[in-house]
Design goal:
Number of helices: 2
Helix content: 10-25%
Number of strands: 8
Shape: globular
Radius of gyration: 17 Å
Oligomer: single chain
Largest sheet: 4 strands, antiparallel
Order of helices and strands: EEEEEEEEHH
């Protein structure tokens, strides 16, 4: 994760943990694509380094980050190690749960993007 330092023009530095998602500027992660809507199988995306067998990674802004998926929640599909399957309970908690709460997730992301002029802490209703 990258966190922006204090002050105008503060440096972006790597941090291994943070207690405030609003302080995070970017999160580095491997990019995956769901093979079919509603299914638990995902395929790693490859870019210019595909010939080397290296998957694509991206730095996404903190406002696009929804949750962390533990490595223990996924397993390779037999006979195809470029596809992983997400455990059923984790799939239900993430994709189905987030889909059902889409408007709340969008509202939270919008709140993180909004700069508060009179406060250094972003606040949001506990709905």
């Amino acid at each position: 994760m990258y966190e922006k330092g204090a002050g105008k023009g503060g440096n972006h530095n790597w941090v291994s943990s943070s207690t405030n998602i609003g302080a995070i500027s970017y999160i580095g992660m491997q990019v995956w694509r769901q093979l079919r809507p509603g299914h638990r199988h995902f395929h790693g995306l490859f870019g210019p380094t595909a010939k080397l067998g290296l998957p694509r990674f991206a730095h996404i802004p903190a406002t696009a980050f929804l949750c962390e998926i533990s490595p223990t929640s996924i397993q390779p599909v037999p006979q195809n190690d470029s596809i992983v399957e997400m455990r059923g309970d984790m799939f239900t908690q993430t994709y189905i749960g987030i889909s059902e709460q889409k408007e709340l997730a969008l509202s939270a992301a919008k709140c993180l993007k909004t700069r508060q002029k009179h406060s250094n802490v972003n606040t949001m209703d506990n709905n």
